[in-house]
Design goal:
Length: 311
Amino acid sequence: MDLTSLRRALPPDARVSYWTAPDGWRVRRFDWPAAGTPRGRLLFQAGRADVFEKYLEAFGHWHARGWSVTSFDWRGQGGSGRFAADPHVGHCEDFGVWIADLGTFWREWSGAGQGPRVAIGHSMGGHLILRAMAEGAIDPDAAVLVAPMLGLRSPVGASLGGTAARWMARRGDPARAAWQGNERPATRTPRQMLLTRDRSRYDDEQWWYDRQPELRLGPPSWGWLAEAFGSCATLAADPRLSALTTPLLMLVADADGLVDAAAARRVAARLPNAEVRRYGPESAHEILREADPVRDDALMRIDAFLDKHAA
């Protein structure tokens, strides 16, 4: 199969459906079973404001290697409803809701098949996967964190940035947008350059939103921002990280303009069984949607890691 064709088309043998959480919330999910006997099962979770369609090309790579691939849109974004009255604002005041969803989904998904179970998370998805592992909500055989949100870029630093976000969340409606447009405030960097150097892959996102505008999400709320700062600080200080022996690969873009790569490296240093691959100015935030030299290297390293730890 030509993997580039997957960037703008759902695989014919994949299925998009809905999973219902215990409280009745409907979560949009994607399943692409491997042909024949799968080598294992892979759950991929994307970042804030993302949808799984953006990663179909990567899914095709893993599917071709024998993995059954599953993903779901976090509740409150993509095709999984909204927390805020404004459907374009990404709101969440308690990441614990997402941890609960992930844990429940993981248990049901784990019991529905055999073979190694792998979790891969991008950005906020990486944060939530690591936090869920530390809290015992999920137990993958191996995990990969891609540009994980283990700290946020802030012009005033994480401590002051978190204090300011909490103050703003309390000052008015916490579900109101923290800023307008772009992925972060007070920057002249074009959105594309914050995400990927590859223009064609960047355009794929807009292609999907043109056809399914209800999936689009805009800036975060002050409530989300306050909770993100708080959750990152709590996870970084969690003593359970040093006892987390699950094999883990972390891909970090040192020039990332959205998440704090240095914070991710500090967390990785506390994990007893973690490998880190760093990228320089050649990579922006979306490593798996970068230009081919970066993307191909990332997929190669993920493949080697899974061959070793999830055979």
